[in-house]
C-alpha cells in the first residue's frame, strides 16, 4: 500500500546523461478536468497512446502511466525489470527538495522500498502478524467504534460522514489492532496527527505531525518489547526474523497509513454509491448482499487508490511499444487498468468478480490478510451506519459533491447527510 508520510529522503544523485530528454508530448496528470472526470482522461490517454502513456507529474516531472490491465500485470509481476527501490530514479538530479511527491518516493528503511529476499523477509513478518488477527474480534471492535462514532452525531439529524465517520473508523481500528488504545487523550492526539500527516490541509504541519507519530510508534515498540500483548506490534517483535526496532517502527507506520486512507475512502465511496445510485435505493437499509455488491463495485469503478507511484526500470526495456529507459519512473494506473476495455469489451464494467487491481498485484501487493481485514472494517462501518440511521439520505444533490483534488486517492472531500435524529 502507498504510504504518504514524510520520509528522510536519500540525498539525490546527479541525473545521468539523457535523463533530461524532452517530454513535449506528455500529458499533465492532474488539474480541474482530471478531478471532475478522471475516467475521461484515462480513456483519452488510452486512445492516444495505448497501454502506457507519457505523463507529467507535479513540477512537470516526466513519468510513464501504466493504463492497461495486462501491462500493469506485467510490470508488477516482473520485479527484475521494474523494481521498487526509488534510488534507481534517473530524475533525482532535477527534483527540488520541496517536491510535493517526495513523501511518496523518498527512500527510507520501510518495507515499501525493499526488494528480493529482504522484501520477502519484511513482508513475511507483516503477513504473519496480520494472519493472527481474529476477524470476528476485529469486526466486534469495529462495531463498537462505529457505534461510538454514530452516537456522537445521531441526535443531530445531520452529519458530515467523511471526517467524522469514514476516515475515523479505520484509523481507530488500525491503531487498536497494532496495540494502541483507540480512546483517550493519547489516542485522540495520535489520530489527529495521523490525519494531518496523511492528508495535508492548508496551514497543517505534516512534518511535525509525522515526527510526533513516529515518536509515539517508537514508544509503542518499546512498551511492547517490555510487555507484549495480543497485537500486531508484539507479534512483529517476537517474529524470528528479528527485525530492528527502527524497521518495525517504519513498517507499523506504513501498515497504519495503508489501512487508514484507502479504507476510509473505500467506506466513503461506498456510502456515496449507496446514497446516490437508484439500483441500491430499495436495499440500502443494511442488506448484506447490496452492501457487498457496492463495496466490490467501488473497487472496480471508484477504487480508493487511483494511481500508485511507483516502479523504476532496472534496465532499458520496452512496454506496450514504448521505450522505457533504465531509471524511468512508472506510475501504476490502478483505476485505469480496472476499467480497461480489454477486460470489459462490451463496455459495461461489472462487479461480479474480485479480479480488480485495487490492492495491487505481484510481490508488492498488499499483504494477503490486509484486504480481508480492510473488508471487515469497511463492511462493518457501512452496515452499522445503515442499521443505526435507516432513513439516511444525502443532504445535497449528488452533483454538488466534490472529489479530493488528488491523482492518487479517490474520495469525496465531504459527504453531508441528514436523517431522523435518534438517541445515542
UniProtKB/TrEMBL annotation:
Q: What residue spans carry the Pro residues bias annotation?
A: 1-19
Which InterPro entries does the record match to this protein? Cyt_P450_B (IPR002397), Cyt_P450_sf (IPR036396)
Q: Which domain of life is it from?
A: Bacteria
Mind telling me which Gene3D superfamilies this protein's record contains? Cytochrome P450 (1.10.630.10)
Q: Where is this region: Disordered?
A: 1-30
What is the similarity comment for this entry? Belongs to the cytochrome P450 family.
| Entry protein name | Cytochrome P450
Amino acid at each position: 500500500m502507498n504510504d504518504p508520510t514524510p520520509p528522510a529522503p536519500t540525498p539525490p544523485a546527479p541525473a545521468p546523461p539523457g535523463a533530461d530528454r524532452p517530454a513535449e508530448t506528455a500529458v499533465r496528470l492532474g488539474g480541474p478536468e482530471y478531478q471532475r472526470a478522471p475516467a475521461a482522461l484515462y480513456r483519452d490517454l488510452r486512445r492516444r497512446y495505448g497501454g502506457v502513456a507519457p505523463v507529467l507529474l507535479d513540477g512537470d516531472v516526466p513519468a510513464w502511466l501504466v493504463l492497461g490491465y495486462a501491462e500493469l500485470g506485467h510490470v508488477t509481476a516482473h520485479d527484475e525489470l521494474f523494481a521498487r527501490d526509488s534510488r534507481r530514479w534517473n530524475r533525482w538530479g532535477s527534483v527540488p527538495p520541496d517536491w510535493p511527491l517526495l513523501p511518496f518516493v523518498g527512500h527510507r528503511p520501510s518495507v515499501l522500498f525493499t526488494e528480493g529476499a529482504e522484501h520477502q523477509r519484511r513482508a513475511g513478518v507483516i503477513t504473519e502478524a496480520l494472519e493472527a488477527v481474529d476477524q470476528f474480534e476485529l469486526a466486534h471492535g469495529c462495531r463498537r467504534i462505529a457505534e461510538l462514532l454514530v452516537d456522537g452525531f445521531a441526535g443531530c439529524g445531520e452529519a458530515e460522514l467523511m471526517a467524522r465517520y469514514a476516515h475515523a473508523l479505520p484509523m481507530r481500528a488500525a491503531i487498536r489492532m497494532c496495540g494502541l488504545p483507540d480512546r483517550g487523550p493519547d489516542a485522540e492526539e495520535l489520530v489527529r496527527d495521523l490525519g494531518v500527516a496523511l492528508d495535508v490541509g492548508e496551514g497543517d504541519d505534516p512534518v511535525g505531525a509525522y515526527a510526533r507519530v513516529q515518536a509515539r510508534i517508537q514508544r509503542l515498540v518499546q512498551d511492547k518489547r517490555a510487555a507484549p500483548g495480543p497485537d500486531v506490534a508484539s507479534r512483529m517483535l517476537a517474529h524470528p526474523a528479528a527485525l530492528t526496532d527502527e524497521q518495525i517502527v517504519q513498517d507499523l507506520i506504513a501498515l497504519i497509513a495503508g489501512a487508514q486512507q484507502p479504507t476510509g475512502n473505500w467506506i466513503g465511496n461506498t456510502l456515496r454509491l449507496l446514497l446516490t445510485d437508484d439500483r441500491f435505493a430499495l436495499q440500502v437499509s443494511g442488506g448484506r448482499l447490496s452492501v457487498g455488491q457496492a463495496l466490490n463495485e467501488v473497487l472496480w469503478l471508484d477504487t480508493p487508490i487511483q494511481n500508485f507511484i511507483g516502479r523504476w526500470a532496472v534496465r532499458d526495456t520496452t512496454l506496450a511499444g514504448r521505450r522505457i529507459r533504465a531509471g524511468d519512473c512508472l506510475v501504476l494506473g490502478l483505476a485505469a487498468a480496472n476499467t480497461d476495455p480489454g477486460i470489459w469489451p462490451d463496455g459495461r464494467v461489472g462487479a461480479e468478480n474480485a479480479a480488480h487491481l485495487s490492492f495491487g498485484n505481484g510481490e508488492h501487493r498488499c499483504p494477503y490478510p490486509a484486504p480481508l481485514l480492510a473488508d471487515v472494517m469497511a463492511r462493518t462501518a457501512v452496515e452499522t451506519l445503515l442499521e443505526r440511521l435507516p432513513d439516511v439520505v444525502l443532504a445535497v444533490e449528488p452533483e454538488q459533491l466534490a472529489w479530493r483534488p488528488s491523482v492518487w486517492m479517490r474520495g469525496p472531500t465531504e459527504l453531508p447527510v441528514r436523517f431522523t435524529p435518534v438517541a445515542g
